[in-house]
Each structure stands twice: as C-alpha cells, then as structure tokens.
Amino acid sequence: xxxxxxxxxxxxxxxxxxxxxxxIDGVACYVATPTVDYPKDKVILLLPDVFGIELSNxxxxxxxxxxxxxxxxxxxxxxxxxxxxxxxNASYDFMAWLSKHGADQTRPPLDKxxxxxxxxxxTKFGATGYCFGGRYTFDLAFDNVIQCAVVSHPSLLKxxxxxxxxxxxSQAPLLINSCEVDQMFPIEAQTQADEIFxxxxxxPGYKREYFPGCTHGFAVRGDMSDxxxxxxxxxxxxxxxxxxxxxx
Length: 248
Prior knowledge:
This protein has 248 residues and is an alpha/beta fold. It has helices at residues 56-67, 94-98, 103-119, 132-142, 161-169, 187-197, 218-221, 227-247, and strands at 20-24, 27-32, 42-47, 72-75, 124-130, 148-152, 174-181, 206-215. It is built from eight helices and eight strands. An eight-stranded mixed β-sheet has the order 1-2-4-3-5-6-7-8, sandwiched between helices. It is globular.
C-alpha cells in the first residue's frame, strides 16, 4: 500500500507548546495535561501523522485536547524516524520510509506505553489518529484496547475490509472526520462507511463528519489562511472533543 502526496504536504502551525516531552517505558511521548481537575483514569492517545510528535502541529493539537479536560499522550510510534517537516514543501522518498514503518515496527511502542499507563491507573483509552495514525487507531480498536476512536482523513485502510472488521470486532464508538478531496479515504470509502456503520447499525456509536473544500491532511496540517480549511480543522477538532466527552 502507499500514501498520497497530501500525506506529506501541508502548513506548519505556529504557537508555543505547553506540554512536555517524556519517556514512558523507553518510548518518547509528548504529554499534555489539563491545568484543571480531570479524570485520572482516562487518557487520549494521539497517534500523529508521519511527521511525528515533534511537529508543532501535533503538539498544539494535544495541548488543545488538554484544554478541554483530557490528559493526552502523543506517542512516538515511529521510533524516532519521522519524516522531516521540510518534506512538506520538497520531494521525499516516502515509499522507502513507509517500508520501514509497518505494524511490526509501529505497534510495539503503542503497546508498551498503554501497558505503562495501565500500571499508573488508566483504565479507559481514547485514540485520535491523523492520516498514518488512523491506520493504527483502527488496529487498536480491532483488539478493543481503546474504548473510543476518532480518525481524521485516515490512510492505509483497506476498504471495505477494514470497515467490516471494525464493525464485527470492535466495541469502540467511531468518529470519522472526512473531507472532499482525499485519495486515501475518498467519497466512495466514506459512503461505504456510512452503509456499514450508519443508521444505528453499529451499536457502540458511529458518526462521520464531512468538510467541503478540504483535502487530506486538513485536520492537522491545513492552511489556516483558507477559510474552508480553517473551518474544517476547527470543526474536526470540535467534533472529536464532543465525541470523546460523550463516549469516553
């Protein structure tokens, strides 16, 4: 399988990160903690795109979830080998990169961090996956490791196979943030998701948001100077917060 050009295009967002970089059982993480009281038994796992936890966009997203009362742990499941931010505006051999970041390499760091957080008393996990992270959010949901799943413009899904597997195996409510132009999760895939999960068929809960005028990557690397993309990014974040508040 492959990624599309929009998977490594986008705009770096500006702002000062409020969280901290720390190591959890040998895995690098970016941790954003609310400044107000919050449920200590719940954590949102943020599975970033191919630019990893170091990208300011991903850190700022984690901070925003924390401002809404969730402790967030963004995990370096790329094992320190993210795609450099400069690749957003330059050519990059991301197929060679992808060959070194399959499930055998990316799943173990996730499992290690989750196990360590359970030791600390966390019993309920939500996951929000962007692009590349959407694939691994689905995998965690397949195994019922997480109790709520949000994916935004997911990549590397086999459609309809992965949608059907999710329906049959997972108990995690699912929110999909989709958009108008997305080679990795196109309109046809979005329609199939609605056919499989929609109209109350998926008992745990299902919702799909659609943002016109947006392209793959909008929820994390969108150009905020474009009004439609700005509305899409902010709308996807709002939908995610509301979904976690309802289901986690």
